[in-house]
Specification:
This protein is mainly alpha-helical. The protein has two domains: 14-226, Orthogonal Bundle (N-(1-d-carboxylethyl)-l-norvaline Dehydrogenase, domain 2); 233-271, no CATH class. The chain has eleven helices and no strands. The protein has helices at residues 13-23, 43-46, 51-61, 67-80, 82-92, 106-139, 145-155, 161-171, 186-208, 214-226, 233-244. Residues 1-5 have low confidence and may be disordered.
Length: 271
């Protein structure tokens, strides 16, 4: 963790204002203002916000896995209709309230939480850039990625100066690259790999304590399945072939691994 031990969250706009929000108290009551805010994010429903919808529509349309982005958006959608949640809670006979975490070493866990937050932010950047890059190549926008980075750095809600510094040398060479998939970049891969153990420890604690952290938990899965070559999706493929004769490739006979229709069908159930 040494590489970003003290600076990974520097200049990260949402982290900075999040700290301000957590500290702010109402001068009249002495109460933390955050504690008085109802748990509804309604801007997607009311039409005041559209970036989450657009981002996820493009990700799905371009066949780009973006689970950090999509899980965060679904969480917002679930939060918006509190009346619906209240009705479901009644049907369940209660909810699953968050429990106090059983933390033996508070400082160590806070460091894990900080690293996990950085790693999830970096994963979100990777996913977003993958969407932009795929669309850029499809419709020939001729995006200058160095300008994109400058815009994000100049004053944007996804401003993250440390991540921008990490990406700057990569973006500077974008014209010579066959893809802008940041998972292929050693510096990005190194930070994601270093952050994976902290992500896992935070997710384990959250699951045990019934805390809801969809973006962080999905970032953990994203790192695992985007680097895995023995995924349980072989079962998906087998089921697709079973009920629809959709074909599959055999292990060891598909060196390129391209997303193309397989060559084999098996009669799983005899007539």
């Amino acid at each position: 963790m040494e590489r970003y031990a003290n600076s990974a969250q520097e200049g990260t706009f949402l982290v900075k204002i999040g700290a301000d929000i957590c500290r702010t108290k109402d001068p009249k009551t002495g109460e933390r203002v955050l504690d008085t805010v109802e748990d509804k994010v309604v801007q997607d429903i009311t039409g005041e916000e559209g970036t989450g919808i657009w981002s996820n529509e493009e990700a799905v349309g371009e066949h780009i896995p973006a689970p950090t982005l999509s899980s965060a958006h679904y969480f917002r959608l679930a939060s918006a209709d509190r009346a619906q949640r209240a009705r479901a809670q009644k049907a369940f006979g209660g909810d699953f309230p968050a429990q106090k975490l059983d933390i033996q070493d508070k400082d160590k866990f806070l460091e894990d939480l900080r690293v996990a937050t950085y790693t999830a932010c970096l994963a979100a950047y990777v996913q977003g850039i993958n969407v932009i890059d795929r669309k850029n190549r499809e419709v020939h926008w001729n995006i200058d990625f160095t300008e994109v980075l400058q815009i994000w750095r100049a004053g944007c809600i996804i401003q993250a100066d440390y991540i921008a510094s990490l990406l700057e040398p990569i973006f500077a060479e974008y014209r010579s690259k066959d893809t802008m998939n940041l998972l292929f970049e050693k510096t990005v891969a190194t930070d994601l790999k270093k952050g994976q153990p902290a992500l896992k420890r935070v997710v384990v604690q959250a699951v045990l304590g019934d805390h809801v952290i969809p973006a962080i938990s999905n970032s953990l899965d994203y790192i695992k399945y985007q680097t895995g070559l023995e995924l349980p999706t072989q079962f998906y493929e087998a089921e697709l072939d079973y009920f629809g004769k959709h074909m599959y490739d055999k292990k060891g006979e598909d060196p390129e691994g391209a997303p193309t229709t397989g060559k084999y069908h098996f009669e799983w159930k005899k007539a």
